[in-house]
Q: What sequence folds into this?
């Protein structure tokens, strides 16, 4: 699954050599979400690690990433891990790729989706919030 999100680079970590054949670089994106700010950690791997060399903390960027998750079972207990695998970072003011060039990837929207209400508009809603 591929998504896009826009935010401000909050922290950029150094590249880490995990094993002889695997290296990664992580960064944190500060994402406005109404009255709350979200902090999401993304990961770049292998030849993508140098993508952040042209960016600094505080830059407004757009990140294209894949969302993946895997279960891990140890001693009969299953845990689930989620990874935000970034594969492109660009300045937020950069022009968007052509509509046909996006490969049909869905976009992650920072605006909450409008849910259909189960209460009709003409019904009196007396909830205190």
A:
């Amino acid at each position: 699954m591929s998504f896009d999100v826009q935010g401000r680079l909050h922290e950029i970590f150094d590249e880490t050599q995990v094993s002889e054949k695997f290296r990664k670089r992580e960064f944190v994106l500060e994402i406005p979400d109404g009255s709350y700010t979200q902090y999401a950690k993304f990961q770049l791997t292998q030849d993508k690690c140098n993508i952040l060399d042209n960016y600094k903390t505080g830059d407004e960027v757009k990140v294209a990433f894949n969302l993946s998750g895997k279960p891990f079972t140890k001693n009969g207990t299953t845990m689930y891990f989620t990874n935000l695998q970034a594969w492109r970072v660009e300045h937020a003011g950069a022009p968007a790729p052509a509509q046909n060039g996006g490969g049909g990837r869905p976009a992650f929207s920072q605006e909450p989706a409008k849910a259909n209400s189960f209460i009709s508009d003409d019904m009196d809603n007396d909830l205190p919030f």
